[in-house]
Amino acid sequence: MLFLLGYCWYLCLVLAHLSGAAWGLAPAGKWDTFNIAPRTKTVYPAAIHSTSGVVTGAELLVGKKGAAALASGSWVTLDFGVEVGGLITLTIDAPSPAAALALSFTESPAFIRPNASDDSSFPAQNTTFDGVLRVDAPLASGRWTQPTYSLRGGFRYLTLVASGGEVTLADVSCAINFMPHVTDLRAYEGYFYALDEGAQDVDLLTKVWYAGAYTVQTNTVPLDTGREVPFAPPGSWANNATLGVAGPIIVDGAKRDRAVWPGDMGIAVPTQFVSTNDLLPTKNALSTMFAAINPKTGALPESGPPLSQQGSDTYHAWTLIGTYNYHLFSADTDWLLDVWANYTKAVAFLEGKVDSSGLMNVTGLRDWARQGGGGHNAEGNAILYRVLVTASELATYANDTALSLAWAQNATALKQVFNDVFWLADVEMYRDNATTTLCPEDANSFAVVFNLTQSEAQKAQISDGLVGNWNDIGPVVPELPDTISPFIAGYEVQAHFEAGNDARALELIRRTWGYMLTTNLSVQSTLLEGFTANGSLAYRYYQGYNDDPSYTSHSHGWSSGPTSALTFYALGLTVTAPAGQAWVVAPHIQGGLPGAQGGFSTPLGWFGVQWALAGTGGLRVEINTPTGTDGILRLPAGAVRGTEYVLDGRAGRFEAGAGVEIALEGGIHVVMFSGET
Ligand SMILES: *[C@@H]1O[C@H](CO)[C@@H](O)[C@H](O)[C@H]1NC(C)=O
Ligand SMILES: *[C@@H]1O[C@H](CO)[C@@H](O)[C@H](O)[C@H]1NC(C)=O
Ligand SMILES: *[C@@H]1O[C@H](CO)[C@@H](O)[C@H](O)[C@H]1NC(C)=O
Ligand SMILES: *[C@@H]1O[C@H](CO)[C@@H](O)[C@H](O)[C@H]1NC(C)=O
Ligand SMILES: *[C@@H]1O[C@H](CO)[C@@H](O)[C@H](O)[C@H]1NC(C)=O
Ligand SMILES: *[C@@H]1O[C@H](CO)[C@@H](O)[C@H](O)[C@H]1NC(C)=O
Ligand SMILES: *[C@@H]1O[C@H](CO)[C@@H](O)[C@H](O)[C@H]1NC(C)=O
Ligand SMILES: *[C@@H]1O[C@H](CO)[C@@H](O)[C@H](O)[C@H]1NC(C)=O
Ligand SMILES: *[C@@H]1O[C@H](CO)[C@@H](O)[C@H](O)[C@H]1NC(C)=O
Ligand SMILES: *[C@@H]1O[C@H](CO)[C@@H](O)[C@H](O)[C@H]1NC(C)=O
Ligand SMILES: *[C@@H]1O[C@H](CO)[C@@H](O)[C@H](O)[C@H]1NC(C)=O
Questions:
Q1: Candidates 111, 128, 545, 547: which one to mutate for ligand 3, based on the most atoms within 8 Å of Cβ?
Q2: Does 476 contact ligand 11 (Cβ within 6 A)?
Q3: Which member of 4, 186, 234, 237 has the greatest number of CB atoms within 10 A?
């Protein structure tokens, strides 16, 4: 009894720490200082970046302290501190009837210019396609608000330029218009915290987690704020197009494209789940794709309206994988059944492309910007495998046993052919297709993450091979030369974790995401869409972006891979049945971290984990999950030493040198592995 009481005291302390999910929110803690989402939905400049000409009182514009006077031909550049997006309001006083004002916006400090914004309408080599927003003479004195069509969805720096006479400005603010359905942008339902002793900045991993979370928030937008197509003419931009069947809706990027792209959602939606758990924008985006299915062929568009790009077998597949992810995180079976007829038609569309070889012949060639990709292509077929495996599971929720079995059988057959055709035994990686020796980053990462590999050794070989592409700031993509893709690197991070190379996965995060958060070229808050091998902003300079480095997005949800990877792998918490009815805790403790803590929410409640290395080869794990759920604590062979553990005060044993697997019910548990004694 005494023992039990003592134990209860101990548990209660744990409980106080882990259970904090009052009203569905993550517990408060030191991690909150890394949350970069603004505290209010109206934000003011945080600093003056620079002035030019004769500007008096510029500093009074910081935090709304007073007015600044700009002589004709002068300008001031305001710094909002982090990426923001929304409509500017300011107070104007301009006695001269000839006085006019111009506004230019940019994410990167490299494109702060009085006569041009960074580009969003169209990529042009002169980098000045968009131009400025003019407020023409004569200026009306008083409050001015930017017209809604001219919304800039993503920027950090605003330059205000006076011409034709002196202009006095005050009360400059931005009304944030992303996350329109949420009042408190910082009210996350999940969190993550780990000290990164392997990095110069010990908080780097936590910062990266929150940078990814905020990036996806800036991509969550009102329905009528899409980029207009056809694009606005030179010298302008327009963000007032309708993006789908309902809002709010998740798009690819804050500044651009501002459209639904299902491939991007393969990374952005897991980020959304582990951070805000705000899945309505995802449901609206997926519904938009299914509503636009081609009724004759079953083809889904590559992107949402107004772009409504067609002709991508891989992005078609990503809508289907996204359907599984949304259902896994939300358990929204009603919605699944609503789209089921269109979903099955869309799976059949892909299955119809599988020819006598047993592989899909990829003919819808559009993709994430990679080259090649047609015919019997490894990346496309890896994604198809994931479609079939997840479709088989989803069919069980629709009670379609026969279809579930047929898709599972076809998945198994595809896996065999995939290995027969693409595996290069001498290189120990998968090749892109049967007529090349190029071993792509995307297909090899997907093969490990989606379980196309047939042995643990194969995973390790691929993980080793992928490192061959690395330079100081990340993996140079074989299938898109001279490029580092934080989108595909997000899958590579997962692949290294899956292969058991925890330290390597963390090192990749430090290199690529550490670079993005610190380079003075970037917005230093949200995550770049991509960059070149030497770190320049000229992403896709030769592949669609017309050598326009100002067009690159600095806030792209597809680059937030570490956010979910840190939760799912470093912390080790995943859901394996809808909404976490079943879950696994498999912390990756061999990466050099002393510990990690975090968690997320689902409709079933709060899921929290805290682990810390203890003693020599020992480990302490605390787990808190909703009652009525079932889970497993799993550790690979060799992760902990010794043969003993204590689960909630009761002793247990495992085989020396073997993996550990302990079945648990929902509730609060503490497991101690003593290590070597
Ligand atoms: C970034 O730093 C380099 C080296 O100090 C400097 O030359 C460059 O002007 C800086 N770029 C920006 C946009 O601040
Ligand atoms: C824009 O301003 C820069 C100086 O900041 C100048 O070099 C450039 O010629 C101007 N471009 C145009 C199109 O006016
Ligand atoms: C920049 O290039 C685009 C595309 O070639 C052109 O339409 C636009 O007029 C140019 N802008 C300037 C300011 O020269
Ligand atoms: C967007 O705004 C522009 C400029 O005001 C206008 O011409 C256009 O019709 C608007 N488009 C939509 C879809 O409202
Ligand atoms: C299913 O597809 C049809 C077109 O064939 C479309 O009209 C309908 O809105 C779609 N339904 C759903 C729920 O996506
Ligand atoms: C096969 O792969 C190579 C390397 O990615 C690529 O250049 C080639 O275009 C691919 N073939 C087809 C048919 O796509
Ligand atoms: C894929 O289909 C296209 C179009 O029908 C065809 O030209 C091509 O030869 C096929 N590729 C393979 C590898 O069969
Ligand atoms: C599937 O079967 C179960 C058990 O009979 C039933 O409760 C459920 O409503 C069925 N679902 C559908 C979509 O038919
Ligand atoms: C399974 O694959 C075979 C052969 O490609 C195909 O005929 C069949 O339609 C597939 N089944 C399903 C349910 O897609
Ligand atoms: C991976 O696939 C094999 C069959 O090829 C299966 O036995 C195994 O359970 C799968 N692993 C996971 C984690 O799904
Ligand atoms: C970086 O790479 C780009 C694209 O290859 C190139 O244009 C640029 O000159 C390089 N910059 C440096 C500083 O080497």
A1: 128
A2: no
A3: 237
Q: What is the pLDDT of residues 528-563, one digit of tens each?
A: 999 999 999 999 999 999 999 999 999 999 999 999
User: C-alpha 9: how far from its chain's center?
Assistant: 40
Choose one of 79, 106, 159, 520 to mutate for the ligand 1 pocket test, by most ligand atoms within 8 angstroms of C-beta: 520
- In order of start, what are the domains of the chain with their CATH numbers? 2-34+572-673 (2.60.420.10), 42-176 (2.60.120.260), 197-538+552-567 (1.50.10.10)
The per-residue pLDDT for 409 is: 98
H/E element, 399 = none
CA distance 118 to 255: 9
Q: In whole angstroms, give the CA distance from residue 343 to residue 221.
A: 25
The DSSP output letter for 550 is: T
Arithmetic mean of pLDDT, 296-307: 98
For ligand 9, is residue 351 a contact (CB within 6 Å)? yes
Beta bridge partners of 325: none
| pLDDT higher than threshold 50 for residue 10 | no
Residue type at 144?
W
Task: Return the structure tokens found at 618.
Answer: 């020992």
Give tens-digit pLDDT for 227-259: 999 999 999 999 999 999 999 999 999 999 999
Token representation of residue 576:
């394996």
Q: H-helix or E-strand containing 422?
A: helix 401-422
Decide: 543 in ligand 11 pocket, CB within 6 A: no
Half-sphere exposure of 377 (CA within 13 A, CB side): 25
- Is any atom of ligand 8 closer than 6 Å to the C-beta of 22? no
Residue of 254, 278, 200, 65 lying closest to 514 (CA atoms): 200
- Tell me the pLDDT tens digit for each residue of 366-387: 999 999 999 999 999 999 999 9
